[in-house]
Amino acid sequence: MSALQALRNRVGRLFREIAKFGTVGAFGVLVNIVVFNVCLKTFGLATVRSGVIATAVAIGTNYLGNRYWTYRHTDKTRRTREITLFLLFSGVGLVIENGILALSHYGLGLTSTLADNVAKNVVGLGVGTLFRFWSYRTWVFRALPSPAPAGTARGQRWEGPEEQRRVRRRAA
């Protein structure tokens, strides 16, 4: 396989991953917006409390979508680790998202419903999503090791592409 073909395959996989992550995320945004506004307007909860509840509900729906669709092909053997890291990084994203909301609402005095929705669901969610995408693909949903190529002797350790890159970095 040529280097160009390998690059094309890698970019294609990344594009599909981003598209699936984005689809799951779009559904999560919808859940987030609906729950946020229901908490805020129907139940009369405080702005940041509504934001935290909405984000928590969206985190649950996003985990299910990412685990069973976006990253269904990744390692499933360490589920406790995966869920712990997912919740940890989602919690950081929650703080980013709702921290921006709190800054806008309480720090800048932008208290209209529109300002709250823009701060939380556009700016905060945008920054939080970038962090989540990086952390989920890097730490939570780890790729399975590549299978050993045909002809590898039994008992011989085969190093996949990631391991080969690590070895080259250490040697440099």
In short:
The chain is an all-alpha fold and 172 residues long. The protein has helices at 3-42, 47-70, 79-107, 113-140, 161-171.
Explained architecture:
- The chain crosses the membrane at residues 21-40, 46-64, 85-106, 118-135.
- Residues 148-172 are annotated as: Disordered.
- This is GtrA family protein.
- It is found in: Membrane.
- It is a multi-pass membrane protein.
- It is a single chain.
- With 172 residues, the chain is mainly alpha-helical.
- The chain has one domain (3-144).
- It is 77% helix and 0% strand.
- It is built from five helices and no strands.
- The chain has helices at 3-42, 47-70, 79-107, 113-140, 161-171.
- It is elongated.
- The two termini are 25 Å apart.
Largest pleated sheet: none
Poorly predicted regions: none
| Strand fraction | under 5%
Question: For the residues shown, what is the average pLDDT?
Answer: 86
Distance between the termini: 25 Å
The proportion of residues forming helix, as a percent range, comes to over 70%
Shape: elongated
Q: Count the domains.
A: 1
Q: What is the number of strand segments?
A: 0
Category from helices, strands and their pairing: mainly alpha
What Rg do the Cα atoms give? 20 Å
Secondary-structure element series: HHHHH
Number of helices: 5
Membrane topology: Multi-pass membrane protein
InterPro entries: GtrA_CellWall_Glycosyl, GtrA_DPMS_TM
Domain GtrA/DPMS transmembrane: 20-141
Protein name: GtrA family protein
